[in-house]
């Protein structure tokens, strides 16, 4: 069994997705702290792996993959067939769209509030941007809650790669000092998926 390498500090929401996915498929991995206070992600050796200078990056033998959701898809397809990867294109499209929604909708909505309230970078965003971030995130999570009212997991009745990708966003929101509307379906889903052993390795508490 080959050893994976995951580059990136665990406080990154995008690294958490990769670590959780690797754990679910039972693939041994080494994680190397890089980025944030650890630095190193602008070094030529790292830029040769990931020209964006961002984290995470996954190495699997000769393969080098960046973009967190692509890493989750790769791990799922390569090592999680019949488990977190579904061969049915319709089920996979459902998973894919929630993964894309996470990157394109939920993460951008949540990021300003996270930076101001948790990373204490008040100078990055105005009070109006903070308020907008909270309002947008709440609206997006209403969509997630409604979706989860009629199914156990994001792509249906089986846990899968979309749950791994989206739950780190819910983890942040549910642990942030913000006023949240009660969302029973989201809460039930999050409690179920975050109790998984691989989730406990990935989801840092307190959030940072
Ligand atoms: N779309 C990329 C975004 C990656 C990204 O923004 N990573 C952040 C951490 S979450 C980063 O590299 N920040 C610089 C740093 O940590 O020094 C992905 O999903 O992998």
Reconstruct the topology from this structure:
Blueprint: E1 4-7, H1 13-24, E2 29-32, H2 44-49, E3 57-60, E4 63-66, H3 68-79, H4 89-117, H5 127-148, H6 161-174, H7 184-194, H8 197-202
Parallel strand pairs: 1-2
Antiparallel strand pairs: 1-3, 3-4
Bound molecules: glutathione.
The site of glutathione has 11 residues, from helix 1.
Offer a concise description of the structure.
The chain is α+β, with helices and mostly antiparallel strands. The protein has helices at 13-24, 44-49, 68-79, 89-117, 127-148, 161-174, 184-194, 197-202, and strands at residues 4-7, 29-32, 57-60, 63-66. The longest helix has 29 residues, at 89-117.
List keywords for this structure.
8 helices, binds glutathione, 2 domains, Glutaredoxin, four-stranded mixed sheet, Glutathione S-transferase Yfyf (Class Pi), Chain A, domain 2, alpha+beta, 208 residues
What does this structure look like?
With 208 residues, the protein is an alpha+beta fold. The protein is 54% helix and 8% strand. The protein has a four-stranded mixed β-sheet, with helices on one face. α1 runs parallel beside α3 (68-79), α4 (89-117) packs antiparallel against α5 (127-148) and α4 (89-117) packs parallel to α6. It is globular. It starts with a strand and ends in a 6-residue tail after the last helix. Glutathione binds at residues 12-14, 35-36, 41, 54-56, 67-68.
């Amino acid at each position: 069994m080959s050893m994976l390498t995951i580059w990136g500090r665990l406080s990154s929401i995008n690294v958490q997705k990769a670590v959780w996915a690797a754990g679910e498929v039972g693939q041994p991995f080494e994680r190397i702290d890089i980025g944030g206070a650890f630095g190193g992600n602008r070094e030529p050796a790292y830029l040769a792996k990931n020209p964006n200078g961002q984290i995470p990056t996954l190495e699997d033998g000769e393969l080098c993959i960046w973009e967190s959701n692509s890493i989750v898809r790769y791990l799922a397809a390569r090592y999680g067939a019949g488990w977190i990867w579904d061969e049915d294109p319709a089920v996979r499209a459902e998973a894919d769209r929630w993964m894309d929604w996470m990157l394109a909708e939920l993460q951008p909505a949540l990021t300003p509030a996270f930076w101001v309230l948790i990373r204490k970078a008040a100078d990055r965003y105005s009070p109006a941007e903070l308020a907008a971030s909270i309002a947008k995130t709440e609206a997006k999570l209403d969509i997630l809650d409604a979706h989860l009212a009629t199914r156990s997991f994001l792509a249906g009745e089986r846990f899968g790669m979309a749950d791994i990708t989206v739950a780190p966003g819910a983890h942040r929101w549910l642990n942030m000092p913000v006023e949240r509307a009660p969302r029973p379906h989201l809460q039930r889903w999050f409690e179920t998926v975050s109790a998984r052993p691989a989730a406990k390795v990935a989801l840092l508490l307190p959030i940072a």
